[in-house]
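Sanity check. The docking grid for pyridoxal-5'-phosphate depends on where the pocket ends up, so I'm generating a full predicted complex first rather than guessing from homology. Inputs follow.
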Amino acid sequence: MTQKELPEGLHLDTLALRTALEPSQYGENSEALFLTSSFIQTSAASAARRFAMEEEGYTYTRVGNPTVSSMELRLAALEGTEAAIGTATGMAAILLLGMGVLRAGDHVICSQSVFGSTIRLFSGEFGKFGVETTYVPQGDVEAWAAAVKPNTKLLFAETPTNPLTDVCDIQALADVAHKAGALLAVDNCFATPVLQKPTTMGADFVIHSGTKYLDGQGRVMAGAICCSQKHKDEVFLPITRTAGMVLSPFNAWVVLKGMETLGIRMQAHCANALALATWLEAQPQVARVYYPGLKSHPQHALAMRQQSGLGGPVVSFDVKASGPDDARLRAFHVIDSTKVCSITTNLGDTKTTICHPGTTSHGRLTEAQRQAAGVGQGLIRLAVGLDHIEDLKTDLLRGLNSLPTLA
Ligand SMILES: *Cc1c(COP(=O)(O)O)cnc(C)c1O
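Predicted complex below; grid placement will be based on this.
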């Protein structure tokens, strides 16, 4: 099957609708879901050639599937990369990245504020196979450069970060990586290609959790690495067809259709998030708001330059309190008083989600580690969905307005 031929120079919104394999003989306008584990071969000889990778054609879904191919083509078009490879989850994409580019004895430099499971994967799992990881403060380019060793093979960053929305300079990290003969991977889950395309700023790989904004409605698990065709064919495909962390065709189809509305959804998420962040900053019960779209954000200028002038969909804030225990009680009160927001740690959904990072995503850290990460007990994270902004304000006021007065 071949890719549908499209004219050059199409915009992201059009690519998100149009990039796919050619329709089947039935001419379906909405891409088909090929829910099949294997494919009928025209002859034994053709099957032999396909299994030897000498002839194009599908054989078995662990090796390839047309719906998964369409999802990969579409995501690669949005990120502006030659290729993408779908995986079962976002974590499976990072696992595949490590299996592909790392060997025993290699060294990784990773931002200390990446997704918690990413840290456990690098230190816990890759550590078992002789890979060493150094963690550095996300925004401190000099710390990244100082951590380079002769055996450094990979730099891994995520921008903006969860939950404090720290932004890093992708181009500066790409320069550090390439000077060291290493590769840079950027987890682009929060910003999506609507806000930033990391490979245009020098990154070698883009990691996606399709579970988040690509699906966009909180339905399925999915992941992907966006990369060069050479990396896909020579490094990653041989691993997925053997190790099997592949994307299910059903999930690929949901994400494929989800991407069709990614552009307008991200614009709407960001507009709602900016309005809510601006409003939160004016609330007397709120100590601090973390949002790259606000002038008060330490990296506001970098974020606006790097993220197409948009602040992203995630807003965090600290409630005022007299100490850590009081802060936790107050944050819990605000969260538990909501009647619209979903209390869940997931994000990327149309539904606004609210959570307490200090006892969920960062709950397994010691209090000292949490302080170092800047995640206090009064911190609340909102992944701002498409709920009406006035309903969100009212929902947060239920708790903010009924907090006991501070001593
Ligand atoms: C959720 C998430 C992941 C992991 O994705 P899964 O699909 O849940 O495996 C990786 N990175 C970031 C930034 C995430 O938010």
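Relevant for the grid: The first strand starts at residue 83 and ends at 87.
Also worth noting: The radius of gyration is 22 Å.
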